Amino acid sequence: MLDANDNEITVGARDGAAHVLRCLKMWYDLPPDVLFAAINLVDRFLARMRARPKHMACISVGSLYLCVTQLNMAKIDASDLVAISQCRCTPGDLERMAAIISNKLGVQPSTIPVTALTFVRIYYHMFRNAAFQLGLGDFYDKAISLADLELRLEILICDALCVSVRASELALVLVCTQMDAHVNNYVSSANPMISGLVDFAIELQKMAKIPDPSFFRSHSLVVRTLTQYNAQKKMPYRQRLVWKLSSRTMRILRPTHKLNSHLPTIDEHKTINNSRSLPRHRSCSFSSDDDGEWPTLVYN
């Protein structure tokens, strides 16, 4: 990732952009494929191109906009996406950025990229088939849910440290992590075939050519990341939002930010001219867009 000392995109900025994409995915009720494809484009683009922090929002939202088209989904209006994401660019900028990303990375239409989500789905069905062959189908269906795996994987890919792990390894570690808690609570004497499912996981690790030290490091990273997320110990990403109000709403709205209930005493003996020359202090400033219809409220 780029160095902050050179005024370039940092790991924190990348993770923040990933969280915004996850929020947009939920806002537009998009499938997980769009989110994983968009973050995949963002990481590949940042690895290949040098970009400034002010362009990070446009790059990430532009990647999401591109992936919706790439996966042949209902097109999202660029103006609406810019307004919801508040990426501080115009719809034209968003479309141009999507075209740049597509050109630089050679994005193919109607092609779903291979991501960690792809491997999670493959491993899920492989483990499920093995579990049913071992007579552990009911146990597996109760212990593992594909929707839950996809949700946890979304949390992991919003962390740059987890993304640095190979996609196939991250997916296998996640599935094994989910099974660990249930296998440890499962009485082996009740069904000795449970060890066969563990052996199957070990064989998959060997077939994927994942060394034990790397697997254990990734396992610790996944457990720590999910634990911090569940305990809400990780500093949440904070995005400064701008509220846009119509002129009619602004006329009846009374801003209460930094409202001071103790007003200074008015000196009634001063002349009118002197009172008019006094500067006026406002708790907030207003700026309007080009059309002047939607003033923007920006608090100091």
TrEMBL record:
Pfam families: Cyclin_N. It comes from the Eukaryota. Gene3D superfamilies: Cyclin-like. Residues 6-106 form the Cyclin N-terminal domain. This is Cyclin N-terminal domain-containing protein. It comes from Phlebotomus papatasi.
